[in-house]
């Protein structure tokens, strides 16, 4: 009898975590490494949020809480959805989990049966397909091309829907591409979904506040109110509020789904960290001005990276609408040999040679379901980004 579960054969470790770990190991060994793999802001959590956490500790708010969130935080989330998204939820329609990942995982575990299909546009966040597989479902990948700015079309969505489709996972702005759907583009997708009432919508709105230029964020149930009763609108404080390590995600949805997700959570982690919940409460109800300043900072970094990458031989990189990633196409580099003698057979070979020869750590595109590409997180200093892009330019110029 095998000791390890057969489930492990269906999933793989997170490639983004693997890249970050490898970069840290090389740094510890004395290498000059610039890590562009981690998807988290490089600045600290705002002081008012940290102060709220300290008060919670001092006031003894360190006991178990309700399984899926304290009432005050649930009310604040309801207010946030109403204020920013025009969505009306009651506290019994809100769930709070240990990060956005647990929210998505709970929903899939609570709803997927063997044979159920989940539509996932690619490029996708690396965890979506594996979470579907862990829940017993079948990922159905719909590829969004560079020519369509990494966004799927209504016809492509329609073609992927079958009688077994349970969920459509929607992420805008996207990790890894930063692509964001306009109101009209999203309306075209929701029109398709309205023709298929058995398909539920799971949104991942984690990068809602990180949008650039004149782009305006919107979410499916906001664009099409007819989808409200079969949409789980997911969000969190990790990215916008620089709270990745605090591990708080949340969602609004139909009561019966929220209850089912609470049942899953009650037998896995139970409540999210109590102190983190009070910090998240302050994040959602306290001053919001820093969001504008942070957005401007990220936009400047985006423009820096884009200008240098698009001046690099063999690389083509579209302009993302949001998040803090770019997803350059490296078709012009495939089949060549690096100055160090590495054969660039695919994007994984490109990323490996780039790290070994220049000390720049990126995540290869196959991890996100679309090649040949790689992902850069520009959530780091301008100085580091400029040096990293200079090294990438030198590396690509040396390909023969």
UniProtKB/TrEMBL annotation:
Nuclease listed as a keyword: no
Entry-linked SUPFAM superfamilies: PLP-dependent transferases
Cofactor names: pyridoxal 5'-phosphate
Entry keyword set: Aminotransferase, Pyridoxal phosphate, Transferase
Reaction it catalyzes: L-aspartate + 2-oxoglutarate = oxaloacetate + L-glutamate
Annotated InterPro entries: Aminotransferase_I/II_large (IPR004839), AspAT/PAT-like (IPR050596), NHTrfase_class1_PyrdxlP-BS (IPR004838), PyrdxlP-dep_Trfase (IPR015424), PyrdxlP-dep_Trfase_major (IPR015421), PyrdxlP-dep_Trfase_small (IPR015422)
Residue ranges constituting the Aminotransferase class I/classII large domain according to the UniProt record: 32-392
Gene3D superfamilies referenced in this protein's UniProt entry, alphabetically: Aspartate Aminotransferase, domain 1, Type I PLP-dependent aspartate aminotransferase-like (Major domain)
GO molecular function terms attached to this record: L-aspartate:2-oxoglutarate aminotransferase activity; pyridoxal phosphate binding
Glycoprotein is among the record's keywords: no
GO biological process terms, semicolon-separated: amino acid metabolic process
EC number(s) reported in the record: 2.6.1.-
Subunit architecture: Homodimer.
Family statement: Belongs to the class-I pyridoxal-phosphate-dependent aminotransferase family.
Name recorded for this polypeptide: Aminotransferase
